Amino acid sequence: MLDVLNTFNFLPIAELEVGNHLYWHIGNLKIHGQVFLVSWFVIALIVGASVLATQNAQRIPSGIQNFMEYALEFLRDLAKSQLGEKEYRPWLPFVGTLFLFIFVSNWSGALIPWKLIELPEGELAAPTNDINTTVALALLTSLAYFYAGFRKRGLGYFAKYIEPTPILLPIAILEDFTKPLSLSFRLFGNILADELVVAVLVLLVPLFVPIPVMMLGLFTSAIQALVFATLAAAYIHEALEGHGEEEHD
């Protein structure tokens, strides 16, 4: 059995290192280099697609313009369904950017053989495969819904912590801590688990068995991006409307 495993050790695509990272040192600051590299690639891909789609816009869209307009329509419907007709427009860029970044990051990890690119330390992978990225996205979401609530209702926003009784104050504070934790660990855990499963299957059965799992991983990656963006929009809507406050058309 050991001989069989050693036979596949030459396949870099089947290796997955956990805890070994490439760091850049800028003064006293230590930066996670491999995450930044793939994140910049993802951002460049999204910006490049947007530029190509709008460079020569046609009244009757086709090609990449048609695809990007479909993506915009999907994101508009997503934000509108969670935030309502009146409130969704200012938050569409934030919710849409979250979805696109997570979606492209997840699929880049599933479709691009990053492990073929050798680094001095660690290996390239989807940015969402790293807990630092998912926590940063979750904290941005937390800041967004705090900002939304405070901007809409001022200091009255914090009254929700003592409604309907001040006894619930610790529970309300705990809820605000659990929201970013659940967002970050759900995304991180699912993406890391998917890459680990595919890596192990490629190592053990490198021909046909991993393909269905990889297809399932693509579907799961898309669902995770949708869940994250939907929950972010739902949290912002909750902050805007407040507890027990009904939306009036």
TrEMBL record:
This is ATP synthase subunit a. The gene is atpB. It comes from Zarconia navalis LEGE 11467. InterPro entries: ATP_syn_F0_a_bact/chloroplast, ATP_synth_F0_asu, ATP_synth_F0_asu_AS, F0_ATP_A_sf. It is a multi-pass membrane protein. Belongs to the ATPase A chain family. The keyword Transport applies. Key component of the proton channel; it plays a direct role in the translocation of protons across the membrane. The keyword Membrane applies. The chain crosses the membrane at residues 31-53, 91-111, 131-150, 187-209. It is found in: Cell membrane; Cellular thylakoid membrane; Membrane. Pfam families: ATP-synt_A. It comes from the Bacteria. GO terms for molecular function: proton-transporting ATP synthase activity, rotational mechanism. GO terms for cellular component: plasma membrane-derived thylakoid membrane; proton-transporting ATP synthase complex. Keywords: ATP synthesis, CF(0), Hydrogen ion transport, Ion transport, Membrane, Thylakoid, Transmembrane, Transmembrane helix, Transport.
